[in-house]
Automatic annotation (TrEMBL):
Keywords: Amino-acid biosynthesis, Cytoplasm, NADP, Oxidoreductase, Proline biosynthesis. It is found in: Cytoplasm. One of its GO terms (molecular function) is pyrroline-5-carboxylate reductase activity. Belongs to the pyrroline-5-carboxylate reductase family. InterPro entries: 6-PGluconate_DH-like_C_sf, NAD(P)-bd_dom_sf, P5C_Rdtase_cat_N, P5CR-like_CS, P5CR_dimer, Pyrroline-COOH_reductase. Residues 174-278 form the Pyrroline-5-carboxylate reductase dimerisation domain. It comes from the Bacteria. It catalyses: L-proline + NADP(+) = (S)-1-pyrroline-5-carboxylate + NADPH + 2 H(+); L-proline + NAD(+) = (S)-1-pyrroline-5-carboxylate + NADH + 2 H(+). Coiled coil: none annotated. PROSITE patterns: P5CR. This is Pyrroline-5-carboxylate reductase. Residues 272-292 are annotated as: Disordered.
Amino acid sequence: MTQTRMLIEERICFFGAGSMAEAVARGLIARAVISPANITFLNRSDSDKLENLKQRYGTAGTNDPAEKENVLRTSPIVILAMKPKDAAEALGQLGEWIGPRTLIVSMIAGLSIRTMRSLLGRPEQPIVRTMPNTSSSIGLGVTGLSYSDGLSEESRRTARLLFEAVGTVVETEEDKIDALTGISGSGPAYVYYMMEALMEAATLGGLTREQAREMTVQTVLGAAQMVRQTGEEPAELRRKVTSPNGATQAAIAKLDESDFYGAVIRAARRCSERSAEMGRDLEDQLPAKDRD
Ligand SMILES: NC(=O)C1=CN([C@@H]2O[C@H](COP(=O)(O)OP(=O)(O)OC[C@H]3O[C@@H](n4cnc5c(N)ncnc54)[C@H](OP(=O)(O)O)[C@@H]3O)[C@@H](O)[C@H]2O)C=CC1
Ligand SMILES: O=C(O)[C@@H]1CCC=N1
């Protein structure tokens, strides 16, 4: 039997096996970027989750400390996918096991490349800092990528392949990643919040839950596609919905009473700040000499 050649032939491991790790792995497998046999999930204790991933995707997984160490020592690519609060301890251990050429790809909000290198105790480690979002699980994610100094073109290509498999990619300087987190990293949650409110309004207006859901989904989908396909600005498309002195204008006036526009901007900004705060909390765990 001939083997299909994959875009990435190296083994990768997800250090953390939660929702973001699964979202990205699912996309990689669906797009045949990497064989499931080359993917290993590592977590702390949730054996059921590892078994579930194995059943659904055919991936390997372990939470046994000795096996985890072995996987981390031998994986050329390690994707960090634990929560920020768990990162300091995990990176401290990881630094003892990886080699100088192991490519570290972090999905951890707030954690800077500089802090990662210090936590690893490896000031030259090749690192890609990313900020994906959960829509990656259906191939419609958007991921911000920034690279450690001097990262090879081969490693950059690997990072692009990993995340282009699950959506679009935005390469940017590291100092923009917190801002990007406030837009695309957390953005799906703001859209879902708006959808929750629209669905509630629909049921209050007498529509069934099913009708409310379908109308809301199709409205959001249609509006996003209109922006993409027409190339028109959202403000111009909004103007076309808004008849003078009509119903939409009355609705927008209500949103303006609550400063909806300003609230969204403040929310995105606060998200970025919180991301940076989480990064500083991690930096504070470093010895004083390694802090900024
Ligand atoms: N959710 C989102 O929308 C996004 C999340 N992110 C980032 O992705 C990261 C993961 O988030 P998410 O997937 O939601 O988190 P989850 O809580 O779903 O998953 C975290 C995983 O990390 C594992 N873990 C924690 N500590 C260790 C350790 N020492 N060794 C091995 N595994 C460990 C947990 O294992 P166990 O269950 O066994 O304890 C669990 O599998 C975060 O840093 C977040 O900032 C980035 C973009 C978007
Ligand atoms: O809420 C969080 O911290 C992460 C970062 C982006 C989305 N979820």
